[in-house]
Structures are given as structure tokens and as C-alpha cells.
Amino acid sequence: MRLILVLILFAHFCPRPMTTLRSGTAGALVPIQEYRFGFTTSSISLENIEHLLLNDAALGVHKASAKTPHCVVKPPAPEDPQQCGPDLPELAWEAKYPKGSINPSAPIPGGFSFYLSGPTSFADHLLAGATEAVFSYRMMLSRDWEWVKGGKLPGVFGGAGELSYRCTGGRQNDRCRCFNIRPMWRENSLGEAYPYLPLTANNEEQLLSVPPVSKKNADYGFSVGRGSFNLAAAVGSWVTIAIRIKMNDIGQENGELQLWMDGVSAISVSGLTLRDSAESHIKGMHFQTFFGGHTDDWASPKDQFAWFADVTGVIVR
């Protein structure tokens, strides 16, 4: 019965007219010229977008880490006096990184970790075979932020069934059946993409060709485009991160990955393989953040905070 409903929804979705986005903050949240429909928790007006509360049930939050809550709070006022007015987020998820904390499963857990599939109608379209989507959010770091060696930020994920949740943390098995792409900060506020993709020779070649610096990490993912964007502006002020994922056709190496910061394209990679079977789908957002790394030299040197708001997703096709 569910499969029939999904097919009906997908058939209804296909002929919808494209929507052209607005500029400014709206353009940073959805930095493409055309999309079909989507959702957002932002108060910013966007056409053909379902506006939702920052609420777990409404956004399809699941598999949340029990050790690291993601409380909804009123975020602090930004430090930048130019960031004012009705477009400012009124509510945000707060991530706390206690002194000495690294990932959410460590003895001192920090940040938070959960998955987000979007509202039911959106999730059903992903399941029905949507092949291209953009996910975004606004974020702000506490004013006395210290970067240390680096840490993870929320990104996107997908794959075949439950295997889609098993692509991070250095896992090597079934890597052809999942993908996970999260931004990452490094020392001195340098930004990069940190993808886990199927382990093909062509994926490695394409990822390592991204400037200014890209490298393969033993047993873990790839560091892609380190220094292609800078997160210093997020200290005490809101910035916008957006990620576009385009699935490859089965048997072809024509998948794509793109990342924007504040509406400016920082990383763009084509010629990728994200799946080898039609069972693999875009699943939504891996809303995870922490210091690390998996060792204590990555740990936060003091209690620090970050806020995440205006969670947005659109289906392109």
C-alpha cells in the first residue's frame, strides 16, 4: 500500500513547474535557479516551500544520539550589527561541546547526532526515486570559539535501506551501498567537504582533484577542497551552508556534489559514483556535529556552543 502511495506521489511530482528562487538569504538557503518543491523552518518567504516548526516530528528526525540532546533554544543575538531584522532565526538547535569532548559516543560526548528525512511528503518523494536535491541550514558559533584540529558539521546521506546509516566512522564494508557527505572545519577556520563515497578508482581521482588541497585519509573518508571556504565569519554571526547531491545513473559515473557557503559555490565535483543499484536513494540530512577526530588531541579546550537554524531541503528532480 505504501509503495502505491509513493508511486502516485512521484507521478504527481514529476510534472510540477520549476520554481525560481529569490536572492539574499533565501538564495543562500536554496542557491540554485530552479527546484520542484521543498520544506524549510525559516521564516523567509520561499515559493513552493512548506514552512515547518523546528520540531523533531515535523522534520522526520530519527536515530538521535541519547547522549547528546539537541534542544530548541532562542539563539543569542549575532555580533555583526548588519545581521538584524525579521530574517534572523528566532529558534535554533543548540549544540554543546563540553571541555574535553569529542564525538557523541566518546566518554565526554559533545555536539549532537541524528538523521533527518524531512516531512512525510518530502521523504516519500526521496523514497520514490528523486535523484537531485539541495539541503541547507544556517549556523552560528559562540563568540570565543577555538577551532583546535577540526570537527564535523551537518551534511547529507543516502544509500540502500539500513546500509545508508553505516557509511561513517571508518567503515569499509558495503561502502558501495551508501554515501555520507558532511562539511568539516579544520585549524584556523578552514572549511572542507568530508565525503564517504563508494570506493571506486574514479571517485578517488575526482575527489583528489579538487583544489586547493584534497587528500585521502587512511581508514576514513576524504578531505576534499580544504581551504575552499572559511568559517571565521560563523564566529558570533550566522552563515549559511548548502549542499547539492545528484545521484549517478546506474552503471555510469555522472553523479555530482556541490557545496556553497553564503550562496557562493566553494566545492563542485562531477563524474562521481554514489550508487551501484536503484535501491540506493537520497535519504536526507545527517545532522551531526562534534570535535574530532576520535582522539583527545581533537577535543574542545573549553565549553563551547553552536546554533543551527533555518533547516531547508528542496527536490530538484
The amount of beta strand, in percent, is 35-45%
* Strand segment tally: 18
- CATH fold topology: Jelly Rolls
| Radius of gyration from the alpha-carbon trace, in angstroms | 18 Å
What is the CATH class designation? Answer: Mainly Beta
End-to-end separation in angstroms reads: 24 Å
Largest sheet, in brief, is: 9 strands, mixed
CATH architecture: Sandwich
Count of DSSP helices?
5
| SSE string, helices as H and strands as E | HHEEHEEEEHEEEEEHEEEEEEE
Globular, elongated, flat, extended or rod-shaped: what is the shape?
globular
- Let me know the average pLDDT: 91
Helix content, binned percent: 10-25%
Oligomer: single chain
Number of domains: 1
Low-confidence stretches: 1-22
What structural class do helix, strand and pairing data support? Answer: mainly beta
